[in-house]
Amino acid sequence: MEIYLDANATTPVLAQARAAALSVMADTFGNPSSIHGSGLRARALLDEVRAAARRVLGAPTGQLLFTSGATEGIQTAVLSALHALRQRRIAGETIPARVLYGATEHKAVPEALRHWNALLGLQLHIEAIPVGADGRHDLAWLSRHAPEAGLVCTMAANNETGVISDLDGIAAALAGSGALWLVDGVQALGKLPLHLAERRIDYAPFSGHKLYAPKGIGMLYVREGAPLTPLLMGGGQEGALRAGTENMAGIAALGAVLSALEAGGVFASPERLQAQRDRLAAALRDAFPGVVFNAPFESSLPTTLNFSVPGMSARMLLDLFDAAGLRMSGGSACSAARAQPSYVLEAMGLPAWQTESAVRLSFGAADSAGLIDEACARLQSCGEALRATCQSEGVQGADGPVELLTRFVVDGACCYIVADESSRRCVVIDPLPQLTDRLAQWIHCRQLELAAVLDTHSHGDHASSAQALRDALPASLGKCDAVDGLGWPRGVQALDLGGHRLLRMSVPGHTQDSTAYLLHDGLQQLRLAFVGDTVMPGALGRSDFEQSAPAAFGASLRALEQAVGPHTLLLPAHDYDNRFATTLSVECAAQPLLAAVLQGRLSDESFAMEKAALEQALAPTEYQTLACGARSECSLFDEQVELPSTELLAQMSAGPAPMLVDVREPFESRMGMAGGALDAQPVPLSTLINALPALTRLPAETPLVFVCRSGNRSAQAARALRRLGHAQAWSLAGGLALWPAQAGDVPGAEALAI
């Protein structure tokens, strides 16, 4: 059963609201602008719902318009306020030069301000109102700047943290200012008494789908006397203030929700909601002992918990929760697809690890006690899964064997652990500062001996964290004499890991000290090479740093080719496009410059000059970090690799039989297979590089289908395999989230047994 804990993004539709909408569509379907009986009945319903909204909002006066949602309401309010300022300027009046908005506002507000400010040619200064560590507005700052503002925009309650604004304090800060005041009431509807008529609020937009009404219906309150410019003109609906035939089904559903609010008995009391939040918070503390809550409970909505867990990314937590059937988010649903820190938490001044790893749990006021009980039980199971897979602090003893290679990635930068099962010795290559605690826990839990911590070169985008990791694992560190600048033990020709050996090779170019590490098995066969930024998928490491050796780069590439050949897997220190590994053969096809220098068609001097031209004015990466190489055009091309479930089922029944690979991490798999009994071989994405040699040797005609929770990670794996030469690599479209629970759920698959 799905446990939905993302109510701040949207809610299910209340049963009474569904019934009301269906009744309107079936019976009261008239156009409220019509003057016959059907139209009059629709008009009566519209007026009845508007009257209920006025009572719930405490707004007996002023305009109350039905809209498509809060975004339309915000646009209308901002247009109205800025148009009024423009008219005053046209009339010769000096108008305030500033527009202010809360630094933690939903993006719909500042984007609307910028849009209409530009479109109306006002050129007003748009400025964010600072907030404190508690997420509340800096009222002293606002008091100082309010006299210079023509419009001030704040929230009643924040959608990410649940922090409740001090509306009375804001009103006091605006005393004496002529600024219009917009209050985003989306998260407050049904949770906070707004008393709109008692406050000097000029505009208040609302969305029905945040409180058990359908999407596509909302309201906008406009104080009596506040300027109002219609966003939509046409047939004169809503008193000629919002054109377009009214969404009567949505309005009826919203009316049912408002009636439930007035009658009571459907939505929990504030005291009960606080008790439910306390139970969920206690469950989180038990599951994740280091959990930090990012907003104070005493000044936040009782339905919202925003939290971070040290050493765990938001993506990792969300994958775990989703595998457990717990639906949460990393912040605003509108920004969920972007891998960026929370701007709300950044505005509160929280440290980077919290802003980058925050998860939002938000439940609904109509959720049952049984749902909260089940949510707490599943959170406990999530904690147990992390402990069993060495992801939680203070745990020792992991399930299952130790993989030879494990990859960690932070903002495109890669770190590797090489662990030998027979000797229980390991080496860390290119450690990252953000991973020190996680790497230490990983090694400690598996009771491994740390043989060395190595860098492939002096990094340009971060300082080495090798010593910090050594300091974190003194008990696990094997006997080791002094090390050189990259961590290699002095006087040692090869690092013996038992069944594997690591050799080093100087490859100056990207930096003077650039080094490749060659991994051999017990038979002295070369398995792969860690090449740092010398060669990256689709790029060569840049050589315009002060510590670079551009004149030596060409010779180093030829020496590397002689040592590893064209088909040995190369593991890079940066992998911006999620290609996992590459080979010189693949890169020569993708990078003409590399092919030319390896084939002797370009001198080292000419190679350095052409390479320098590519590296001029390199822009930062999508993570806003220093780009360590100029990517070629072809490396950015993404093939469509998504395979719909219907096609996969057809392949499974008709042949050739596809090979199915589940790239979810072990802590996810422990929570159970989502979407039915799809029999896939587990190869976690973090250890995919171990399987790459075997997967690339599959017969060309064998379909290789990767699966994961959502289809994102499996698509990365499929593209990586295609780049390495297996053209029949695919990703299950939509992931296990869209896989039918039973084969019979897919047309034509009734006879197929999976």
Q: Could you tell me the CATH topology label of the largest domain.
A: Metallo-beta-lactamase, Chain A
The shape is elongated
Contiguous helical run count: 23
Beta-strand content: 15-25%
Q: What would you report as the Rg, rounded to the nearest angstrom?
A: 30 Å
From the 3D coordinates, which CATH architecture of the largest domain would you assign? 4-Layer Sandwich
By DSSP, the count of extended strands is 29
What's the structural domain tally? 4
Segments where pLDDT lies below 50 for 5+ residues? 334-338, 743-754
Q: Main β-sheet: number of strands, strand sense, barrel status?
A: 5 strands, mixed
Helix content: 25-40%
What does this structure look like?
By secondary structure, this protein is α/β, with parallel strands linked by helices. The protein has 4 domains: 64-244, Type I PLP-dependent aspartate aminotransferase-like (Major domain) (Aspartate Aminotransferase, domain 2, 3-Layer(aba) Sandwich); 269-388, Aspartate Aminotransferase, domain 1 (Alpha-Beta Complex), CATH 3.90.1150.10; 405-636, Metallo-beta-lactamase, Chain A, CATH 3.60.15.10; 642-745, 3-Layer(aba) Sandwich (Oxidized Rhodanese, domain 1). The protein contains 23 helices and 29 strands. The strands form 8 sheets. Strands 17-18-19-20-23 form a 5-stranded mixed sheet. Strands 25-29-28-26-27 form a 5-stranded parallel sheet. Strands 4-3-5-6 form a 4-stranded parallel sheet, with helices on both faces. Strand 15 (425-429), helix 14 (436-445) and strand 16 (449-454) form a beta-alpha-beta unit. Helix 1 packs antiparallel against helix 8 and helix 9 (270-287) runs parallel beside helix 13. The chain starts with a strand and ends in a 22-residue tail after the last strand. Mean pLDDT is 90; it is low at 334-338 and 743-754.
